[in-house]
Every structure is written in C-alpha cells, then in structure tokens.
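Hypothesis: this fold can be encoded by more than one sequence.
Test: take the structure tokens below, design a sequence, compare later.
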C-alpha cells in the first residue's frame, strides 16, 4: 500500500509459490472458486500446475461451472498480462499464456469424482507420469490455497479445499511406491 505495508492480498500471493501467484490470488479474492464444488475446484486449480504443451481435448466438455470459471480466469490472466506490460514489467508472453493451462482439467475433474486412473488415461494424450506429477502438485497447491483461505478468513472455501484435496488424494497417484509386492 502507500505506507509500504504488505497488504492481505500481498500476503496471500506470497503463499502461492507453486503456481501463477498473481492470477491465482485475484481468482481467490474475486471469489471465482466460492460457488464451485470440490471436484470442480480441483479441475479449475489444475490449470495452475499443468505445464505440458497439451490443449484441452474438444471431445470432452467441462462442467458448466468449470467452463464459466475457466472463462473468468483466462480473462483475468489476460488483464494481468496487459497490466504488467503497461507497467513495463519484463514478461515472456508465451510463457505467461502457458502458465494457466486447462489441458487436463477434464481428467482431474473425472479423477476427483472417482473415475479409475486407467479410464482417465484413455481420455488424455498425456503420459501417465505427467498426470501423476500434476495431481500430486495439485494437492500441494490446494493445501497452499487452504492456508490462504485461513489467512483471509474464508472458512467455507477452506473446507472445500480440504474436500478437493481428499477427492484427488487416492489410489495409485498417491501410492508410496509403484513397486508394491
């Protein structure tokens, strides 16, 4: 702020070290996630951790509320890019655009609703390891968002983050070893 004191929004952004902290913080403060169910939140948040060069397949439609959140987030992301450019912040536009990628949002939604991993692998053209890494990173991001929700006193969203985390933290993706005898 004008007195050089870190604002609540600044403190929240500092918690988001594994994702695009600017867009994600704006999404949280603009209440974009508030009306979503936990599995929808997982799908939306997957856009902040998926870095592969893979576009969302047109064969699978996202749930209506996820699609609406996607449009809002992409518009906010573009707005932040324009703001940074106007302030002469050095920015790689291609990298900035790729930092929010809904390429596996449908797969994450399906995973969070209980679909088997083998069925999800038939929906996407992404290697298994990339999906597993992304879901593990997503769980970490959901925990960080939960901390931010506690910081800003959004108890309802904090509870939804817990539920979203529980929904994706299952089966082979979170097995301690893939070499179980």
């Amino acid at each position: 702020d004008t007195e050089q004191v870190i604002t609540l929004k600044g403190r929240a952004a500092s918690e988001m070290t594994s994702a695009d902290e600017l867009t994600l913080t704006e999404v949280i403060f603009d209440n974009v996630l508030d009306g979503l169910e936990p599995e929808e939140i997982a799908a939306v948040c997957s856009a902040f951790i998926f870095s592969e060069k893979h576009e969302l397949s047109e064969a699978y439609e996202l749930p209506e509320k996820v699609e609406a959140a996607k449009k809002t987030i992409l518009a906010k992301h573009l707005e932040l890019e324009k703001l940074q450019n106007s302030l002469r912040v050095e920015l790689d536009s291609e990298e900035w655009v790729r930092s929010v990628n809904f390429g596996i949002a449908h797969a994450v939604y399906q995973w969070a609703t209980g679909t088997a991993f083998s069925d999800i692998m038939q929906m996407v053209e992404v290697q298994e390891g990339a999906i597993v890494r992304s879901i593990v990173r997503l769980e970490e991001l959901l925990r960080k968002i939960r901390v931010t929700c506690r910081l800003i006193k959004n108890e309802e969203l904090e509870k939804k983050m817990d539920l979203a985390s529980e929904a994706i933290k299952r089966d082979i993706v979170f097995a301690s070893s893939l070499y179980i005898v």
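The chain has a mean pLDDT of 88. DSSP finds nine helices and no strands in the chain.
Hypothesis status: open.
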